[in-house]
């Protein structure tokens, strides 16, 4: 039998529980409102509705262009210092008369850190058509916006000042160890004139899964994120996902080609590893196939042989192009069908962006102009001399005829007197 005290306690408990429940509901609605406000302020990216090329491209797994019209882009992003212990790999694989289907040389991207870098060698690669990008000065964990700003600015200056390369040519950044700083990182890079970042990973479920296309951060990073990702709007700034490869056993993802749990330890397995990932893109959504790599992986002879074979086999396809990241983004800004790709200037041999080659072209043009001028002068002088000779000869002939006629008349006067 309930007492008045029991009833009072029960009523008090019910009121307290009700208040708590109401408070929880209010907090939930507030959190929901705040979350919705963030999403609504950023919006949902809809291509050709609120996002337009060449300044904006939505994150997607299926490009709007018909798959059969898309060239399969392959790019290489090599990290760390450039020096004699790694340069022979670049020379052997990419500077040995390897050309794209349009007849122009292939190109790669070098993400350069400062320590041990030979900047004279770096300039040679720029003049060969490689893209130079920034991988910090110190190669330490760079996890704040201020650190990104300091390291990116200093190394960009190092590359420009030590090689003579125009500052505006250096536009790409990769974080050491892929340690990122979220939105402050992008703000710093934007302020310094960078146009893309390639430090965040996307892992597909398996070999049959599609990879993400590069996109602009107008609507933030929309993919799964296991690091500090930029969630705010950064209009026109490109984010290139590091689409993780799948190991040769088709079990685990590998952000870098040389960082796999299941490592290939012979040429055939290494070749299979490369080509299985290639064909998953080539026969899939045709998203750019990126090799994120440290050159020391090629110190193993079987890896180097496997890569050489893979490059040759990929280039046997007339719709596959090995381009640097900046060239790849030029296509993203201006998607061009395979039928027109040989006339796509950013992938062509001309105009040449290399300063050394530009000097050579200017020299050749000057030589041609001077040659034409000399020929014109020579022809003019020869023509004048010829005309003078002809004139003299004509005058001589006319004078001779007059003299001859006079002589005849004189002879007639002496032999036949008049009257």
UniProtKB/TrEMBL annotation:
A GO term for molecular function: hydrolase activity, acting on carbon-nitrogen (but not peptide) bonds
UniProt key word Membrane: yes
Membrane-spanning parts: 21-40, 358-380
This protein's record includes keyword Ribonucleoprotein: no
NodB homology domain location: 71-195
Record key words, sorted: Membrane, Transmembrane, Transmembrane helix
Record-level GO BP terms: carbohydrate metabolic process
Name under which the protein is recorded: NodB homology domain-containing protein
